[in-house]
Amino acid sequence: MIELPKKAKKPTMYFIGVTTNQSSIMDLFPHWMKALDIEAELVGIDIDIHADPEIYRQVVDFIKKDELSYGALVTTHKIDLFNACKDQFDYLDNHASMQEELSCISKNNGKLEGSAKDPITSGLAMEAFIPDKFWEKHNGEVLIMGAGGSARAISSYLFDEYNDKNMPSKLIINNRSQPRLDKFKRIFNKINSDVEVQYNLTPKPEQNDKVMAHLKPYSLIVNATGLGKDRPGSPLTDKCIFPENSLVWELNYRGERRFMHQALENKREKNLYIEDGWIYFIHGWAQVIAEVFHFDIDDNIFIKLEKIANDIKQPETSKI
Questions:
Q1: In whole angstroms, what is the distance from residue 46 CA to residue 49 CA?
Q2: Of 125, 163, 135, residue with least CA distance to 251
Q3: Residues 276, 302 contacting (CB under 8 angstroms)
Q4: What pLDDT was estimated at residue 166?
């Protein structure tokens, strides 16, 4: 069982995660609220990974019934919470229904709504560091290690049909367990069935090394496993070989981030561009906060929030 938050005494948003007190959002949230002229507080709810479905149901039920509980951002538990609680929502957006996950809980005229923001926020984050026409010019591939919600969101953006010729030449998905691979395949086939996709069962880091060694130059390599943040380690070994002139995206913005440091150790020799999860983190929180408190984020508001975030916590990232 889990100790639920006490009845909210002021407008409250929740952060449903694993180690929420370690997140930078706990420092950022009050400053963002002041800048947005919103009076609200953020409360973390820590739940063990792959918890009992009843725990997720209790948390969602509490938010639904508590008048001053406005909503929540969900991380790590996006898929498990969706599976356990989808019937508790009055409305699920198209992304949540398609991806079978949710990252945002909000209320609208007394109704509980669930949405998946990752397809939007991952796209915004990639637009910030992937050069224009990168795929059309170089014909590189994409390797995503991890087959969860973030991996599906990134793939959905990269292989959306509106991209036309500016798509990676191939999608490669590596994961430690077969059920996640099967689910990814089932959902991605609805998004774009014309893409060449390779699915690899890779329970050992050495197997990820072997797959990455065959990537084309000018590829994108993504750590979507969560390793390096709440859990130590990397999906790769220290003997891994990165493809030349490639983009490396560490989705974590905190923790030991061994994957990012492996890339940094090869940055000069392989001419790598390395991005961590900081801008993804900012977009993710900004989009959910806007949904929970019912306002639109334009460029001016996002720039303001980004500046506040960078002033409070300079991210440990590397860009060329």
A1: 9
A2: 125
A3: no
A4: 96
Give the fold, CATH level 3, of 12-116+279-312.
Answer: Rossmann fold (3.40.50)
Please say whether the beta carbons of 10 and 67 come within 8 A: no
Is 106 strand, coil or helix?
Answer: strand
Segments making up each domain of the chain, as ranges = 12-116+279-312, 120-276
| pLDDT value for 76 | 87
User: What does the CA dihedral 171, 318, 314, 72 come to, rounded to 10 degrees?
Assistant: 0
Q: Using an 8 Å Cβ cutoff, are 246 and 221 in contact? A: yes
**Stated pTM of the model:** 0.89
What's the confidence (pLDDT) of residue 1? Answer: 63
7: which DSSP letter?
A: P
* E strand intervals along the chain: 12-17, 41-46, 69-74, 91-92, 104-108, 111-115, 142-145, 171-175, 197-201, 220-223, 247-250, 273-275
Cα 313 from Cα 58, distance rounded (Å): 34
The reported pLDDT for the residue numbered 320 is: 35
The residues that bridge with 130 in the sheet, in sequence order, are none
| Chain Cα centroid distance, residue 172 | 18
- Residue spans of the chain under pLDDT 50: 317-320
Instruction: Give 24: exposed, middle or buried? Use CB within 10 Å, 0-12, 13-18, 19+.
Output: middle
Assigned token pair, 52? 């009992």
Q: DSSP state, 131?
A: P
According to the model, what pLDDT value does residue 314 have?
55
SS3 (DSSP) at 150 = helix
Architecture of domain 120-276: 3-Layer(aba) Sandwich (3.40)
